[in-house]
Design a protein that fits this description.
Blueprint: E1 12-16, E2 26-37, E3 50-61, E4 73-77, E5 83-84, E6 92-95, E7 115-121, E8 130-133, E9 142-143, E10 150-151, E11 159-160, E12 176-183, H1 184-190, E13 201-207, E14 224-230, E15 239-247, E16 276-289, H2 296-302, H3 323-333, E17 337-342, E18 348-353, E19 388-390, E20 395-397, H4 399-413, H5 415-449, H6 454-458, H7 460-475, E21 508-510, E22 516-518
Parallel strand pairs: 5-16, 11-16
Antiparallel strand pairs: 1-13, 2-3, 4-6, 6-14, 7-15, 8-12, 9-10, 12-16, 13-14, 15-16, 17-18, 19-20, 21-22
Biased composition (Polar residues): 507-521
Region (Disordered): 478-521
Length: 521
């Protein structure tokens, strides 16, 4: 018992430097050699044995290289196509496979990842994604299809790419992949240095506080491990940014080195300076980092102005004193908006809607009348029950109905809450059914069995013997007897006494044919 692992603490997160895989991706050769030798001083010629046996096997450890399965990506942040206060947020990506960033390397350092996040904004500019083949990452011609003739690579003459793309088992030159071409000057400014790579990846072990949100049972005592790659560049405010997850496999000679991030001297094969660097893009997403003045806090601060966001006066060049115009003007002044409304029955109409913010002071507590005005009625079950109808104008107010529906959807969106709500409803239903059954037994069979004490009624063994005794003494004489051995049908049947039969009042009813039957006919 002393060696048992302590229970995991829920809501705890542990950061880990790295999760090194047992073997890196690539080809391996294993050789086994066995020697047989007779080491006696003077063995006979027949016994003089000196032999060696060797067996060599090759095997391949496969992993992602030119593409990544989308199921391996757990999440990205900032979220794709989102807009928010991200000017102080480094983009990052989470992988469900905890060893993925360390299954290959950018150079010989073991804890160095082969993956990196490069952030581009509109001022860079953002490179275009190109659909290419693996062979387009090198200079030599290659077949673009199975059995096809060699064709030129699309790698620009002024661009460099990976130093070594020797194909591994099952890889082909015409396998598809995605790539981006980055100017060398921009590449040197944004790519992580060799000393940064170990710091931009880590692993996490998380014990969820609410396992139901992650599809686990509340009793599960496990932790979830994942790998994280973090970017090295903050976005510019009020700009659209694009993040690319790129492969830096064997790209160490092209990366900045030293603590001062000395740029690498990137040259072509002929010794001239390169202008572009082509990298494989394994994943990309975009988001917008808004200006601080346009954030939620900034907008709230801007509300404190003389004009602010007040409702503007209605400019009606031809004012009229009609009741309809006055009604509409009053509704607009109260903050209402006329909205197209498709009812549950499929009708189309126009209804009033108003959000939680109003241009006047309201009581601190708003009471929503119960349906039909009866306080004993159940709470609102559907959004339609919260629709308010004005019979004088024929207009409906859907404000409360919209708020009810929005709150319901937000609650059900929370997996932990929705699962807890379902379990609570189910337990209440089961408890109600059991209580109803208990009352039936107490009112019907309980008195007949002589079970008046609650302790006896709740004891399964006592109840079992009481029911068995009741069947034996009261119901057995009226049960259908077993058929005779000759399988002849019974000649008659016994009926229970009249006092045990239910009262039946003959009632006439009509059939579609017009015939009249009476119960008991």
């Amino acid at each position: 018992m002393g060696n048992a692992n302590p229970p995991l603490e829920k809501g705890k997160i542990t950061f880990i430097n790295n999760h090194q895989p047992p073997l890196l991706d690539g080809e391996y050769v294993i050789t086994v050699e066995q020697k047989l030798q007779n080491k006696n001083a003077a063995p006979s010629p027949a016994a003089a044995i000196n032999e060696a046996y060797t067996n060599t096997k090759r095997f391949q450890v496969r992993g992602e290289r030119f593409s990544i399965d989308s199921t391996e990506i757990e999440s990205v942040f900032p979220p794709s196509n989102s807009q928010g206060e991200y000017e102080n947020v480094l983009p990052h990506i989470v992988f469900s496979r905890k060893t993925l960033p360390w299954e290959r390397t950018a150079h010989d350092q073991a804890d160095s990842s082969w993956l990196a996040l490069l952030l581009f904004d509109e001022n860079d500019p953002i490179p275009e994604i190109q659909n290419i083949m693996v062979g387009d990452l090198q200079r030599s011609p290659f077949p673009h299809e199975e059995g096809g003739a060699n064709q030129d690579s699309t790698l620009p003459g002024t661009a460099v790419s990976y130093l070594d793309i020797s194909l591994e088992y099952s890889e082909l030159m015409y396998d598809p992949c995605m790539a981006i071409d980055i100017p060398v000057s921009l590449f040197n400014n944004i790519v992580p240095g060799l000393v940064d790579l170990p710091w931009l990846t880590h692993a996490r072990s998380v014990t969820p506080e609410q396992p139901a949100r992650m599809g686990m049972a509340e009793t599960d005592d496990i932790s979830v491990e994942s790998a994280v790659v973090v970017g090295n560049r903050l976005p510019e405010p009020n700009t659209k940014c694009t993040v690319h997850l790129v492969s830096l496999e064997n790209m160490a000679p092209y990366l900045p080195s030293g603590d001062d991030y000395t740029p690498a001297d990137i040259k072509l094969a002929d010794g001239s300076a390169a202008e572009m660097v082509r990298l494989v893009s394994l994943k990309s997403w975009s988001y917008t980092s808004v200006d601080p003045k346009e954030t939620f806090t900034g907008l709230l601060m801007d509300l404190d102005k003389e004009d602010g966001l007040r409702v503007f006066a209605i400019n009606n060049p031809n004012p009229s004193d009609t009741e309809a115009d006055s009604y509409v003007a009053n509704g607009l002044k109260m903050g209402y908006t006329a909205m197209n409304h498709h009812t549950r029955q499929g009708c189309k109409t126009v209804s009033w809607y108003r959000g939680p913010f109003v241009p006047f002071e309201v009581p601190p507590t708003i009471f929503v009348p119960v349906p039909n005005g009866d306080p004993t009625d159940m709470p609102i079950q559907t959004a339609d029950e919260a629709v308010r109808y004005n019979p004088e104008t024929g207009m409906m107010d859907i404000s409360y109905a919209s708020a009810w529906q929005i709150g319901r959807l937000l609650a059900l969106q929370d997996k932990g809450f929705s699962v807890a709500l379902y379990n609570w409803k189910r337990s209440c239903t089961l408890a109600t059914v059991m209580e109803f059954e208990r009352q039936l037994l107490e009112q019907g069979v309980g008195e007949t069995l002589g079970l008046t004490a609650k302790a006896h009624r709740d004891d399964p063994l006592v109840m079992h013997h009481a029911v068995a005794k009741f069947i034996k003494t009261r119901l057995k004489p009226y049960l259908i007897k077993e058929p005779p051995e000759d399988n002849d049908p019974p000649t008659g049947r016994q009926s229970p006494p009249a006092e045990m039969m239910p009262d039946i009042t003959p009632t006439a009813f009509n059939t579609p044919q017009g015939n009249t039957f009476r119960e008991g006919d």
